[in-house]
Specification:
mainly alpha, 4 helices
Length: 119
């Protein structure tokens, strides 16, 4: 699970220091669940019928990763007017809620990317 976190390191940054360990634990838990889902399918790929279908899984995963790559490029090109870098989340109620939503989004994105890369 640690090797996947190295790939997803960008998704695990930008949090309050008090939230870093809980966020990493959520990502680790999601990665572990991904492995529990993926390993039985890997064993199924040993059967001849499923082995012929494995190319389809690779193509779908490749398209997803290409989509994420294009999304990052578009975000980089059209984000020039915004402040680049890490933002500090203040402790007001509205901003903390936005921080929680951003945290959930980043964790979900990291777990999804882990699932695709692990597959």
């Amino acid at each position: 699970m640690g090797d996947d976190l190295a790939v997803n390191a960008e998704k695990a940054t930008g949090f309050l220091s008090s939230r870093e360990i809980p966020v990493l634990m959520k990502i680790m838990k999601g990665s572990f669940i991904n492995k529990l889902i993926i390993v039985p399918f890997v064993f199924l790929l040993e059967w001849p019928y499923f082995a012929s279908q494995s190319k389809l899984f690779l193509i779908i995963g490749g398209f997803y990763l290409a989509y994420e790559g294009v999304e990052k490029i578009v975000e980089f090109l059209f984000r020039s007017g915004e402040k680049k870098g890490h933002e500090v989340i203040e402790e007001s109620d509205d901003i903390v809620e936005e921080g929680e939503d951003a945290e959930k989004t980043k964790v979900k994105s990291a777990i999804t990317t882990d699932f695709i890369l692990s597959s």
